[in-house]
Amino acid sequence: MSPIPDWLPTALTIFFPLLTIFILRFNWNRLAKHYPTYEPPPTHFWRMEHGYVGWVYYKGTLNVGVSRQGIYLSIFPLFRFGLPSLLIPWSAIWKIEPANSLFVQRFRLHLSTPNIKLIIRKEVLEPAKEYLAAQGFEWI
Q1: Do the Cβ atoms of 58 and 50 come closer than 8 Å?
Q2: CB neighbour burial string for 91-116, b if at least 16 within 10 angstroms, e if fewer
Q3: Which of 14, 28, 29, 101 is 20 to 30 Å apart from 1, CA to CA?
């Protein structure tokens, strides 16, 4: 059996953080092409939420806001890596369905452009009832 090459630990130390940053940025950057915003967070705003953007789970690093214009998303500043805040209009959502876990009620929001799913807690979307009703969605 051959010994581990000297360069392998260094390569892995560099490779895995870069891979992680790429994965975290992939769907976020796709959304940022369509929905970037420089507006401050709305009044209905929750910090350090858990949720999915695409297939990436943001555990305690997702900031979510609800306004008349749409859903405001940002990442906790320490983990932002230069990713912009997003404001996704209500008209970009084409389907909403329950995505409950063991003790937490969540909703899966399907976006039309780009084709990405968001999973957000029900309590966070509660103030959006009237905006979603205007788009033709019934509150589940």
Answers
A1: yes
A2: ebbeebeebeeeeeebbebebeeeeb
A3: 14
- Spell out the per-residue pLDDT of the chain, length 140, in tens: 567 777 877 877 776 666 655 665 667 888 989 999 999 999 899 999 999 988 888 889 999 999 999 999 998 887 777 789 999 999 999 999 998 878 889 999 999 988 999 999 999 999 988 888 888 887 66
Backbone angles phi, psi at 127, to 5 degrees: -65, -10
Q: What total number of domains does the chain contain? A: 1
51 touches 68 (CB < 8 A): no
Q: What is the CATH number of the domain that holds 21?
A: 2.30.29.30
